[in-house]
Amino acid sequence: MHRLDSLRQAVRELLDAGEVDGVLALRADHGGTVPHLFQSGDDLSDLALWPKFPMPSTVDLLLSMEPEAKLGVVIRGCDERGLVEMAKRNQVDLARLTLLGVACLPDEVAYCPCSKPYPSEITVGEPLEGVVDPRVSEHAQLGRAERLAFWTHQFAKCFKCYACRDVCPQCFCEDCVLENDLWVERGVLAPPFPSFHLIRALHTVGKCIGCHECELSCPADIPLTILYALLRQDAETMFGYVPGASIEDEPPLVIAGVT
Amino acid sequence: MDYRNVLTTCIYCGAGCNLYLQVANDRVVGVLPAKQHPISQGKLCIKGWNAHGFVHHEDRLTQPLIRENGAFREASWDEALTLVADKLQAARADHGPDSVGIMASAKCTNEENYLLQKFARSVIGTNNVDHCARL
């Protein structure tokens, strides 16, 4: 059976079982996809999977809006890792979620590129080997002066749209330090170098699960995922921590419940 | 429990980026980018990401106001548009088409601004077309 048909069947069964108030999944819309809350009796023929769309932020929105609701969610590996890190910081309650896992197809794995393109429990699809973003190892070969020149050029393009923060499932601080005049002066472009982007980068350590949405959302095409991938490597080397890998692992930078 | 996303065009400039308004229980609560859109390609600027902010704002005007004797009163769209049309026609009749100027807006789409200059040139009969970004 085609994976979309299998997924529709799984969503239908979950809705018919009546244990969730709806299933959050992607719906085909105007040539793309967008998160949609499928409910009992809905037509599932336009349930879709590509282009991928980050689900955790919408899950957070719906759970906050409806404190009693239970949801089914169609997730990829990156979505699950994101939800795991959010759960560790009390942003989502996994007990209220039923996850329907989708393993990514080869071209989807290459598009991201993703280190673990499948969730812990797979409803549809077959798990594929992860791939490493070749830009990360290439960047690691550069000397300090070359890196500085590279990021000076990249960050000079930033016009502070905050898309990297807004799209990020792991950016949920109510008061964002990047909106604090102490660190980031209002009305001035480009933002302070390198502190603006390094503040955000350091805040993602132990949280960033490599969904690539920040880079995909950046109007200035800044290759942010190179930076975050290198920090993720450092965190793994220093602390043995892989964000999103397990709900049991304690994030290394959590001190008194705050990262 | 009601949640849906409505595709629309960003109201903040003429670039015409598309975005989804997140609608939950009949309230517009957020924005998601539209990855399929040929112009915005899933990217938005800071204004696009906050395009929902004014929708339910308490300061938002939700119907036309007509000033009479120095004070505003609420009016219907029909009444307000009729008043504007009457005043434009009177100015044109009394002082000629070039007594009218049309200010286009950066908050309109390219197509809406095209229609506005067409209205100025073909209906009013003036080339007095300018743009709020000049201010």
Give a verbal description of the structure:
The complex is a heterodimer of chains A (259) and B (135). Chain A has helices at residues 3-17, 56-65, 77-88, 106-111, 134-140, 144-156, 163-167, 195-203, 213-217, 224-239; strands at 22-29, 32-38, 47-48, 71-75, 97-101. By secondary structure, chain A is of the alpha/beta class. Chain A has 2 domains: 3-111, no CATH class; 134-239, no CATH class. In chain A, strands 1, 2, 3, 4 and 5 form a 5-stranded mixed sheet that branches. The model of chain A has no long low-confidence stretch (mean pLDDT 94). Chain B is an alpha+beta fold and 135 residues long. Chain B has a 3-stranded antiparallel sheet with strand order 1-2-3, with no helix packed on it. Chain B has a two-stranded antiparallel sheet with strand order 4-5. Chain B has a two-stranded parallel sheet with strand order 6-7. In chain B, strand 4 and strand 5 form a beta hairpin. Classes of the chains: A alpha/beta (259), B alpha+beta (135). The interface between A and B is medium-sized, with 32 and 24 residues.
Task: Give the tags.
A: 259 residues; alpha/beta; B: 135 residues; alpha+beta; two-stranded antiparallel ribbon; 3 helices; globular
